[in-house]
Amino acid sequence: MEARLIGSREIAPGVRHFEFGALGVERLEFVPGQFTSFVDMIDGKEITRAYSMASAPSGSNRFELCLNRVEHGHLSPRLFDMKPGDRIGMREPLGMFVLRQAPRDSIFVATGTGIAPFRSMLQAHLKASSPAFTLLFGVRYESHLLYREEFEEMARTHAHFRFWPTLTRPDAGWKGRQGRVQAHLMEATGERRDVDFYLCGLKEMVDEVRGLLKGQGFDRKQILYEKYD
């Protein structure tokens, strides 16, 4: 299978939002939260990298990704250099980082481009009849609050959705939460222990949050996660 780039745009310094079409299928099937893998030959070697879907299934062959440019990475410079119409090898979506069925009130914890699967999940599942969701999103700088306007609009139109951005390096004008996501976990849960947690981001954050939650009495089955280096 191949993917053809439809277009891309910068959404933060060093971060781009991509829209692709999967060739050879009329409809790309996947579950929100899953990932696809891109495959290419780089310096004579086959390189494969997995990227979380950043959009809900569209009923067509189109899908979206959110990627950092890794300067010395094998594949991201190639993707950032792609022009509309360029193609790259891809594999069918996979992964178990998806909402449990039936879903219940949940807290999503993301850092950086770990926001991608949560955008997919919220686009697909947030509605008047859905459980309550809280999105705790940590980045260094306000300029890196990816998809901020979309999440703020979701919070305005759905009273049972909370968008909580937090910055570790805020400027003087920032009035929101500060510090790492770990500092705001208990504010998100209150006294409740009947919620599920979904974590996505760098390994250090995911491992630390898991440890904190287990120490506060959450069962490991309530904590789903996907981490990357």
Gap from first CA to last CA: 27 Å
Largest sheet: 6 strands, antiparallel
- Architecture of the largest domain, according to CATH? 3-Layer(aba) Sandwich
Contiguous low-pLDDT stretches (5 residues minimum) are none
What's the rounded overall pLDDT mean? 95
Going by CATH, the homologous superfamily of the largest domain would be Nucleotide-binding domain of ferredoxin-NADP reductase (FNR) module
Q: How would you sum up this structure, described in words?
A:
The mean pLDDT is 95. The protein has 229 residues and is α/β, with parallel strands linked by helices. The chain has a six-stranded antiparallel β-sheet with strand order 4-3-6-1-2-5, with no helix packed on it. A six-stranded parallel β-sheet has the order 10-9-8-7-11-12, sandwiched between helices. The chain folds into two domains: 93 residues, Beta Barrel (Elongation Factor Tu (Ef-tu), domain 3); 123 residues, 3-Layer(aba) Sandwich (Rossmann fold). Helices cover 19% and strands 37% of the residues.
Short description:
The protein has 229 residues and is of the alpha/beta class. It has five helices and twelve strands.
